[in-house]
Specification:
- The protein is of the alpha/beta class and 260 residues long.
- It has 2 domains: 84 residues, no CATH class; 171 residues, Endonuclease Chain A (Endonuclease, Chain A), CATH 3.30.870.10.
- Helices cover 43% and strands 18% of the residues.
- The chain contains 9 helices and 9 strands.
- A 9-stranded mixed β-sheet has the order 2-1-8-7-6-3-4-5-9, with helices on both faces.
- Helix 1 packs antiparallel against helix 4.
- The longest helix is centred in the first third of the chain and has 21 residues.
- The relative contact order is 0.14.
- The N terminus is likely disordered.
């Protein structure tokens, strides 16, 4: 029976709670008219219509208000659980223009890296360790690896007229050869103007920063860049997507000694 009526309150826990309060306080019952419902309930008109349908059905099957309260409280429990499972989001900003109300990108990146306990997934189109601040962030990643965090870079295979694998070479050039090494992956099969253009940082498959900033000082601090930090299941889904692509051969593993 529950599934027949929860559709009327999907995503509006407060509406269900208001109906429960009104029933408990005897402001309404199964026989309350639509006109009186609009007066007694602090709800939108469209929701009042759904409540009226529910009350009509409840009266039609001969059930009392106490059973209806029990039913609606079960709906509330379900809504609260779904709400708790939803991801939490925070806007993140690079650059000095218009950034007063948002958290800055680089401190957010540094905090996310420092929080990692098991895994870091870093996807970027462009990586350059071209400032002290960028070097500090990169060192945080290396330090995470030393404490047992598995580090995965998913990269576009950037090349110029003279050299290939530019992103991977930057990582290995700046990463100490002694100690744990990162897993470096390059997208394969990019033809013409196709690019691996995603910019994502994920800690422990639950804390993700998704945005426009490349892993460069301009991207992390100087350009106007926007990102969203999301805590929840989205991080797990994103990390699994990159790992799945690697397993399917859509990313190729780069080794330090094979880049030439």
């Amino acid at each position: 029976m529950t599934s027949s009526f929860t559709f009327a309150f999907d995503g509006v826990l407060e509406d269900v709670e208001e109906v429960v309060r009104a029933l408990r306080e005897s402001r309404i019952d199964c026989g309350t008219s639509s006109a009186k419902l609009r007066i007694k309930l602090k709800l939108r008109g469209s929701v009042v219509d759904e409540v009226r349908r529910l009350l009509d059905h409840w009266r039609g099957i001969g059930a009392n208000e106490a059973a209806l309260i029990d039913f609606l409280e079960a709906v509330c429990i379900d809504r609260r659980k779904k709400s708790a499972d939803q991801s939490r989001a925070q806007v993140v900003w690079s650059g000095s223009y218009g950034a007063n109300t948002f958290r800055q990108t680089q401190p957010t990146v540094n905090a996310l890296i420092a929080s990692a306990k098991k895994e870091l997934v870093i996807a970027t189109y462009w990586i350059r360790i071209n400032s002290l601040a960028a070097r500090h962030t990169f060192k945080l990643i290396e330090d995470a690896s030393k404490r047992g965090v598995k580090v995965h870079f998913f990269l576009h295979e950037n090349s110029d007229d003279d050299e290939s694998h530019l992103n991977a070479k930057v990582i290995f050039k700046n990463w100490n050869q002694v100690g744990p090494q990162p897993n470096v992956w390059e997208a394969v099969g990019m033809k013409g103007i196709m690019k691996m253009h995603a910019k994502v940082l994920i800690a422990d498959q639950q804390d993700a920063l998704i945005g426009s900033a490349n892993f460069t000082q301009h991207g992390l601090d100087q350009n106007i860049e926007i990102g969203v930090r999301v805590v929840g299941r989205i991080g797990e889904e994103l990390a699994k997507q990159f790992h799945s692509m690697a397993q399917k051969g859509e990313f190729a593993r780069c080794e330090r000694n094979s880049l030439g």
